[in-house]
Design brief:
Helix content is 18%, strand content 16%. It has a two-stranded antiparallel sheet with strand order 1-4. Strands 2-3 form a two-stranded antiparallel ribbon. The longest helix has 11 residues. The relative contact order is 0.22.
Length: 99
Amino acid sequence: MISHRLCRLNSTEVISASLIPKRVLLEEGKNYFWCVCGRSTKQPFCDGKHKGTSFKPIKFTVEKTGKRFLCCCKHTQNKPFCDLTHIKVMAKRITGQKM
């Protein structure tokens, strides 16, 4: 499904990979790369599909091992963590407004 959408998108458009955040176990001190563009098939993490676009993944670590919600709508103001912006994105899609 995403591959068909990618054919129509240019390299500056962010794809909302999902309107539901992903809960993941993150390990203290480990480097993670969060997908910014939404094109990765390994959401919410980067798999390199941003190549050829203007996007770069965000490298991050956590100070304490634990489960966290990572953003998949790609509109969070607290990258890479979910800040519930997906609710606003859903509402705008339902009403036909643009982000």
